[in-house]
Write a structure and sequence with these properties.
The chain has 321 residues and is mainly alpha-helical. It has 13 helices and 3 strands. The chain has a single domain, classed as Up-down Bundle (Rhopdopsin 7-helix transmembrane proteins). A 3-stranded mixed sheet has the order 1-3-2, with no helix packed on it. The longest helix is centred in the N-terminal third of the chain and has 33 residues.
């Protein structure tokens, strides 16, 4: 008698990973409530990091964590459709936001004119992120229209039947190729902006995120293709890769700011006196000598008129790194 085996892990390897997902969800909600809560919404640390893109990144993390539950559920036509579109879209939202953020900083610090660079406002940042993520979703929907979702029985051995989605595993990687391109581009920009002034060192944390993500994805590809037709190991490696990619971004990007908000509140206070002195002290003497008198005068005038916060300083600071 042949037994129908559903593609879940009965021996607990994936079950142990799934039990961590509620903790990850609660952790993300905690970040959202403390980091972007109304009490901290207008503080310098939150403003400097870009509140709008932070919302998008956190929502993308929640989607990534939710995808793990979908992967270990019983395959159905609906689940397979969400799997083919949701995982790639969640990753595209996450890494598109990081790419837009690093690209923005790179353009600001490589800008030679006193004119403000284009497309650095919050609205334009959201639009660019939505455009990049929308391309992934549009491609996935076209693929779903060409190859409709469904389930199919596979026979790894003569005495085993496995119920899986009707699309081969290597086809699933097509939807992640776009996300891999975003990761590569984001890593390149993180390397380019690694020497920005100390006050704008968020790109360094983004760089740590992207370096670790590249290692995780390379490891996942090795396990995914190196295990043959063992769907249990493939599903396990995919779930762990999704969770760890989100965990890395959560730890490297948000936890340093959460630490400041909760335990070093004096660093998150609005200070007017000596703000420019502290900013210029982070540059070495060689860089300070290169600054023109007109550029310094321009910054001081804009700071006086617009009451610079750290976020506005990042938007208008046109010095070369």
């Amino acid at each position: 008698m042949i037994t129908l085996e559903i593609n879940v892990l009965p021996h607990g390897r994936l079950l142990a990973n799934s039990e961590l997902q509620p903790t990850n969800l609660y952790r993300t909600i905690f970040i959202r409530q403390n980091y972007l809560h109304c009490r901290n919404h207008d503080t310098p640390v939150v403003k400097a990091s870009g509140r709008e893109l932070s919302y998008i990144i956190l929502i993308a993390m929640i989607m990534c964590y939710a995808m793990t539950f979908l992967l270990i559920s019983r395959p159905t036509t609906f689940n397979c459709a969400i799997k083919r579109t949701g995982i790639g879209f969640a990753f595209s939202c996450l890494y598109a936001a990081l790419l837009v953020k690093t690209n923005r900083i790179a353009r600001i610090f490589s800008h030679c004119s006193v004119q403000r660079p284009m497309c650095i406002s919050p609205v334009s940042q959201i639009f660019l992120t939505a455009l990049l993520a929308g391309l992934q979703l549009f491609g996935s929907l076209i693929w779903l229209f060409i190859v409709p979702s469904g389930t199919k029985h596979y026979y790894p051995t003569r005495g085993q039947v496995v119920l899986k989605c009707n699309v081969p595993d290597h086809h699933f990687l097509y939807s992640l190729a776009y996300d891999a391109a975003l990761i590569v581009l984001c890593t390149v920009y993180a390397i380019k902006t690694r020497k920005v002034p100390e006050n704008f060192n968020e790109t360094r944390f983004i760089g740590f995120t992207m370096y670790t993500t590249c290692v995780l994805w390379l490891s996942w590809i090795f396990f995914f293709f190196g295990t043959g037709s063992d769907f249990q190991i493939q599903t396990t490696s995919l779930c762990i890769s999704i969770s760890m990619s989100s965990n890395v971004a959560l730890a490297c990007i948000f936890l340093p700011k959460i630490w400041i908000i909760l335990f070093e509140k004096h660093k998150n206070a609005h200070r007017q006196d000596g703000i420019f002195t502290k900013r210029f002290e982070s540059y070495d003497n060689e860089h300070i000598r290169e600054r023109s008198t007109y550029t310094i005068y321009y910054l001081v005038i804009r700071a006086t008129e617009e009451k610079f916060t750290q976020k506005l300083l990042l938007q208008h600071f046109i010095f070369r790194s």
